Amino acid sequence: MKSESSSPAVKRFHELLDAVLKDVDGKESHEEFNATLDNIAKCDPEALREFGDEDSGQEPEKVVAEFKAVIAERMSLLARLRVAQARRRELLELREKLRPGRKFSGLAMLVLGEKRFQRYIVPELADMHKEYYEAIDAGECKKARAIVWRFYGFILWPIVKVLFLTIKTIFDFANK
Amino acid sequence: MKRTQSWPTKTEMTVLSLLMNSPQGLYGLEVVEQSNKEVKRGSVYVLLGRLEEKGYVERTTPKVDASYPGLPRPIYKITAPGRKVLALADQLDMKEAFA
Question: Interface pTM (ipTM) of the complex?
Answer without folding.
Answer: 0.79
